[in-house]
Write a structure and sequence with these properties.
seven-stranded parallel β-sheet; two-stranded parallel sheet; 307 residues; alpha/beta; Rossmann fold
């Protein structure tokens, strides 16, 4: 049995759906605070659905019963939200994660794969980001993800619970929410252009990100479940390509066949300037490779948002 937390969310729903389509027994767990019921449509009949909250230890214990593998995707995944509400996001992102680890330990779960974030690196100038680099989180969200990593590794070393931490770099794709105030940049750009508007860039547009299509992240998670040497490790999951926001708009201009004129606003607190990952460890430990590149992923994402 596989448990996917946050399975009504963007990444969690893709992971759970892929497991169902590959014939696995899947239990999904979500409180629908940021996830959406429509993200379960079309595949949830193949899964057991539990609505519950990670902050409630009883809910978590019930969700973990009989589970062999946990893919922990649930979080409040927003830097600006964490800056505004560090206490509330701490309860979800740290206390919820600790509740899950305690339940997994008691149940004898074989392995927990944890969704961490590239934001833990902060804004150090060295590129590409490697797992051995210092971590200097610039926001409560980044600090919460780093704390989750430490809990994962401690539960592995102290209690023998196998854990793997995957540091995601700017994941995008279908089902990502463009309507939230804190939405990621690609769905915001796509919906603005599709509606005839002008996308907003915070800063000068020269900031860079390692945009990673969601199916690549799904494959990394599934690989991390059973990779023999991955337990106790922290692993980057990314495309390994540095793309500026202006370059991103140029690719989207080609897909939409239109000139895109963005609106520039002030940089947001907590945002980093440049980010790109080394995938060496993922390749070594997970046999990870990119299955969908940036332009292919953008085309699939545009098709989904404009369907």
């Amino acid at each position: 049995m596989y448990l996917v937390t946050g399975a009504a969310g963007f990444i969690g729903s893709h992971i759970a759906q892929t497991l169902v389509e590959r014939g696995r027994r899947v239990r999904v767990f979500d409180n629908l605070s940021t996830g959406k019921p429509e993200n379960l449509e079309g595949w949830q009949e193949g899964a057991e659905v539990i609505r519950g909250d990670l902050r409630n230890a009883d809910d978590v214990a019930e969700a973990v019963k009989g589970v062999r593998y946990v893919l922990h995707q649930a979080a409040v995944p927003s830097v600006p939200k964490s800056v505004e509400d560090p206490l509330g996001t701490n309860e979800s992102n740290i206390t919820g994660t600790l509740n899950l680890l305690l339940a997994a330990r008691e149940e004898g779960v074989q392995r927990v794969v944890f969704a961490s974030s590239s934001s833990v690196y902060g804004d150090l100038p060295s590129l590409p980001k490697r797992e051995t680099d210092p971590t200097i989180p610039l926001s409560p969200y980044a600090l919460q993800k780093l704390t989750g990593e430490h809990y994962m590794r401690q539960f592995h070393s102290l209690y023998g619970l196998e854990t793997v931490c995957l540091r995601y770099f700017n994941v995008f794709g279908p089902r990502q929410d463009p309507e939230s105030l804190y939405a990621a940049v690609i769905p915001r750009f796509i919906t603005a252009v599709a509606e005839g508007g002008r996308p907003t860039i915070y800063g000068d547009g020269l900031q860079t990100r390692d945009f990673t299509y969601v199916q690549n992240v799904v494959e990394a998670n599934l690989g991390a479940l059973e990779a023999p040497n991955a337990a106790g490790q922290v692993i980057n999951v990314a495309a390994g390509v540095k793309t500026s926001l202006l370059d991103l708009l140029e690719v989207l201009s080609g897909i939409f066949d239109t000139e895109i004129d963005p609106v520039f606003e002030d940089e947001r607190p907590g945002d980093i300037k440049h980010s790109v990952a080394s995938n060496d460890r993922a390749g070594e430990l997970l046999d990870f490779e990119i299955v969908v590149d940036l332009e292919q992923g953008l085309r699939r994402t545009v098709e989904w948002f404009t369907r």
